[in-house]
UniProtKB/TrEMBL annotation, chain A:
InterPro entries: Peptide/Ni-bd, SBP_5, SBP_5_dom. It comes from the Bacteria. This is Diguanylate phosphodiesterase. Pfam families: SBP_bac_5.
Automatic annotation (TrEMBL), chain B:
Its main location: membrane. This is Peptide ABC transporter permease. PANTHER family: DIPEPTIDE TRANSPORT SYSTEM PERMEASE PROTEIN DPPB-RELATED. It is a multi-pass membrane protein. Residues 98-317 form the ABC transmembrane type-1 domain. CDD domains: TM_PBP2. The chain crosses the membrane at residues 102-125, 137-162, 252-278, 298-324. The keyword Membrane applies. Belongs to the binding-protein-dependent transport system permease family. Gene3D superfamilies: MetI-like.
Length: 585, 331
């Protein structure tokens, strides 16, 4: 009898989570390299998502892009005088500053008050050459001035456009200072950067890994167990100040399950093992498939995102000149020749909207009334003809003995992109453009010798995606100084090599335009120019797919917040008394 | 034999050095590095940032300089940190991944050998009997069916279909490692929880192992049964059972030592597809992930460990032959 019971026990599908014990089990396809590293030396999406549960900032943005106070007592604005812009005699902004007052009840999870020193400690390390932060923008020009025990001012000189919308990091100086001082003493005169890096890893890994979980956190949840390759559990931090009313009604434990195979992740959803899926998890196809099998057990969401799929047109080098790829008319013709509406309907059920700009509709800078380049074969043929391309006996366009044959590359193994390629190849063939598909692994496409070396004619068209927070849009993807060349060490992101004097002028103006309404006007014109010249063929903005079971509230995100963890303190079960504050849009 | 073994061990040193050089070169010469991956996710990164990061990670040095730095450190037992997990690469492999792989593959090898060897003998002795046909058919099916497909079917059946038809009373978890039961619940509860998660991947892995060993054992046994000494033993009037188990079996089993000897390093390398399908965090998956994310130190630890195991187990297999087969001597 005992044996039978034991057998049944392990064969029983355990209901592991849900409202019963007021916990939440989230499935994800990635495991973070480390957690709660205040300097984000690993910037994977899953790290950002999980850090959202444990982190807190002076301010934060909600799903609609509204800035709210968290550690700070209020949001700095020009109106309340906490945000200041200083101009010189010519009227140019020379610096700007934001002043914050830390809430009296803001505490680390061990009960130690959060102090200005924690922000100063963070900034010192952020700008230390021995710390391998990916980039220091805008903190390399920031200075902290202490006004009183709880109030400090951050000054940006040169000024930073989004000073009132970013929150500096903070690190528990009372926990980390001693170890940092030891690191500092050990590596001060170290010549070998690799040795310094090993020491840095020793330092940071003693606060951020499965073996050494963060000692204290500032956010609504603190980590309690991390079994690498399996799961990470966090429990509610009672010391967090920004709790909802009756915090016991909200989720008390969050467990992230790492399920690297997305098909296995899907089976976990279907078998009811997960309450929700992370923003980093399912593919679009899996989302569509899951939406057909919901049976009221879970609901599938397709959240408009800020990841922009497009095709760069290589306008650099002799080959591009021979093929007229450096002429806007050729790029317009290529865009008119494809039916992007039909493509998104066929492949994505119309859930991924066609784009006509690199800026997404969720951004305040988005310009609606640009040319939409709907399929117009006649117009495409007209433009090809205007450039001297005429159909040959085999139907392929030719000019001066050369055929209009383009090499089209993307990341091999990405089935969605490969399907898009097939459709576009057929559509271009219909107007006489021969497209050869030449795909490479992502490591080659994004490696040092491919996209950035466009002038050598390694590619004609390359399909990939850019991701940018819509709040911090600067337009810098298309600045001509961002064209990667030998002279600038192949840095910069303007891979098509597009150069437009007026765009550059507007971009430089927008970079220092601190008035939002005026920036919008500048970006209107920048988008109009870009849309006319189409240095890249805009395809669509990707949606993020996730599922959650009914009754789970405030587990939402948008292209601005990006991860459901932005509102971690308020995630809960309606049946346990959690009040719904945000609905998924 | 002692001198022979010592000579072989000494020969391993230059061999392993060459292997380490090849692995390092092949890994380092792949296109892209961890910094390139950072660059493409970040439009704010500047040329100075890139240079600073490459210097910090030592990626600004030629690959052979980096190899000698690695070798110098490795000789002292320092295999560097995992770029992805921020812990020493050796610790990551030996504490986080290797135990999971052994938990899956060692029982799979032992149980499948214990099942397959008798079945192979039975199949050979009863050649062309209905059961031989059934076993042969099963073996072909198990060898031919792709693991990812059989795994997906098993997942669907045990994790979705079975709970549906039993109203949720019976099911197996759809992948993962378990660990839902806290240690306070007692060893049996912890063991049962682990077993629940282990069962599906173990079954799938065993299916193929059984099929391969069964086919191998059947073929060996059939060949042995046609040998002169077996015919002679039978002609002498020895009982069938004695001929079979005393004379034929010992010789037929000898090549299994080779099969097992070569399987053991593979065990440590893990069962990549099975681990991937069932999200089992083992060595195979670790090697794959480390190669994709250019986590060089983890790649080196994993592949060097496999190289060492392969040469060591080859030596042990050779020595085992001498013990099993009196005709083989290494003096």
């Amino acid at each position: 009898m005992k044996k039978t019971l034991a057998l049944t026990a392990f064969l029983l599908g355990a209901a592991l989570a849900g409202p019963a014990n007021n916990s939440l089990v989230v499935g994800t396809s990635q495991e973070p390299p480390n957690i709660y590293d205040p300097w984000n030396t690993n910037n994977l999406a899953i790290t950002s998502e999980i850090n959202g549960y444990m982190g807190a900032g002076l301010t934060y943005q909600d799903d609609d892009g509204t800035t709210k106070a968290d550690i700070a007592t209020r949001v700095p604005t020009l109106g309340n005088g906490d945000y200041k812009v200083v101009k010189d005699s010519k009227g140019d902004v020379i610096r700007n500053s934001v002043t914050y007052t830390i809430r009296k009840d803001a505490k680390w999870s061990d009960g130690t008050p959060i102090k200005v020193a924690d922000f100063q400690f963070w900034l010192k390390l952020e700008n230390d050459d021995r710390v391998p932060v990916p980039d220091r923008d805008p903190w390399d020009r920031a200075k902290i001035t202490v006004n009183d025990a709880d109030t400090f001012t951050i000054t940006f000189e040169p000024p930073y456009l989004f000073a009132d919308q970013v929150s500096p990091g903070l690190a528990p100086s009372h926990i980390m200072s001693a170890a940092w001082n030891a690191f500092d003493a050990k590596t001060k005169n170290e010549k070998d950067a690799k040795v310094t890096n090993e020491e840095w890893k020793k330092f940071i890994s003693s606060f951020t890994t499965a073996r050494n979980l963060p000692k204290v956190v500032a956010g609504p949840f603190k980590p309690t167990a991390w079994r690498t390759g399996n799961s990470l559990t966090m429990t509610r931090n009672a010391a967090y100040w920004n709790q909802p009313k009756n915090p016991e009604n909200y989720v008390q434990t969050v467990t992230y399950r790492f399920i690297p195979n997305t098909n296995t992740l899907k089976v976990n959803i279907l078998s009811g093992q997960l309450d929700a899926v992370s923003a980093v998890g399912l593919t679009f196809d899996q989302g569509v498939d899951l939406s057909r099998n919901e049976r009221n057990k879970y609901k599938t969401y397709f959240v408009p995102g800020a990841v922009w799929e497009h095709i760069d047109i290589n306008a650099r080098g002799q080959r591009a000149k021979d093929l007229d790829l450096d002429d806007p008319r050729m790029r317009q013709a290529l865009l008119y020749a494809i039916d992007r509406d039909a493509l998104t309907k066929a492949l994505f059920q119309g859930k991924q909207a066609v784009s006509n700009s690199w800026i997404g509709p969720v951004s305040k800078l988005y310009k609606k009334d640009v040319n939409d380049y709907n399929l117009n074969v006649a117009r495409a043929r007209q433009l090809f003809a205007a450039l001297g391309w005429t159909p040959g006996s085999d139907g392929v366009l030719q000019k001066a003995g050369k055929k209009l044959t383009l090499n089209f590359s993307t990341t091999a193994g990405n089935s969605t992109r490969e399907r898009v390629q097939q459709i576009l190849q057929a559509q271009w063939k219909a107007v006489g453009v021969q497209v050869n598909i030449q795909n490479y692994p992502a490591s080659v496409i994004f490696g040092p010798d491919f996209l950035s070396k466009g002038e050598s004619g390694k590619w004609d068209m390359a399909m990939y995606a850019w991701s940018n927070n819509p709040v911090f849009e600067e337009g810098n993807l298309w600045k001509s100084e961002g064209i990667p060349t030998a002279a600038n060490g192949y840095s910069g992101q303007n891979n098509p090599g597009w150069k437009n004097t007026e765009y550059d002028k507007l971009y430089n103006q927008a970079k220092v335009e601190f008035n939002q309404a005026d920036r919008i006007k500048l970006f209107d014109r920048m988008q109009a120019i870009w849309n006319t010249e189409v240095p890249a063929l805009p395809l669509y903005f990707r949606v993020n797919v996730y599922t959650k079971v009914p009754g789970l509230v405030n587990y939402t995100f948008s292209a601005i917040t990006q991860y459901p963890s932005w509102n971690a303190a308020n995630i809960g079960w309606a049946s346990k008394g959690a009040v719904e504050e945000y609905k998924q849009k | 034999m002692g001198t022979y073994a010592l000579r072989r061990v000494i020969q391993m040193i230059p061999l392993l050095l060459v292997i380490s050089l090849l692995i390092f070169a092949l890994t380092a010469l792949q296109p892209g590095d961890p910094v390139d991956q950072l660059v493409f996710g970040n439009s704010n990164i500047t040329p100075d940032d890139i240079a600073r990061l490459k210097a910090a990670y030592g990626l600004d040095q030629p690959w052979f300089t980096r190899y000698f730095f690695w070798l110098k450190q490795a000789i002292t037992g320092n295999f560097g940190y995992s770029q992805d997990f921020g812990i020493p690469a050796l610790e990551f492999v030996f504490q986080s991944r290797l135990p999971n792989t052994l938990l899956l593959t060692v029982p799979a090898l032992i149980i499948s050998t214990l099942i397959a060897v008798p079945l192979g003998i039975f199949s050979a002795v009863r050649q062309y009997s209905p059961l031989d046909y059934i076993l042969t058919f099963f073996a072909f099916l198990a060898v031919s069916a792709p693991v990812f497909w059989v795994g997906a079917l098993a997942l669907y059946f045990f994790a979705i279909y079975l709970p549906q038809i039993t109203g949720g009373a019976l099911s197996l978890p759809p992948g993962g490692l378990g660990g839902d039961v806290p240690p306070e619940a007692g060893w049996w509860a912890v063991f049962a929880d682990k077993l629940k998660y282990l069962l599906l991947p173990l079954m799938i892995l065993m299916l193929r192992e059984i099929a391969v060993t069964l086919r191998f054992m059947r073929a060996n046994m059939l060949e042995t049964l046609t040998q002169d000494y077996v015919r002679t033993a039978r002609a002498k009037g020895l009982a069938d059972r004695r001929v079979l188990y005393k004379h034929a079996l010992r010789n037929a089993v000898t090549p299994i030592v080779t099969l097992l000897g070569l399987s053991i390093p593979g065990l440590f390398g893990g069962a990549v597809i099975t681990e991937t399908v069932f999200s089992w965090p083992g060595m195979g998956k670790a090697i794959l992930d480390a190669l994709v994310s250019k986590d060089f130190n983890v790649v080196m630890v994993c592949l060097m460990m496999l190289a060492i195991l392969t040469v060591v187990f080859q030596l042990l297999t050779d020595l085992a032959y001498a013990v099993i087969d009196p005709r083989i001597r290494y003096s």
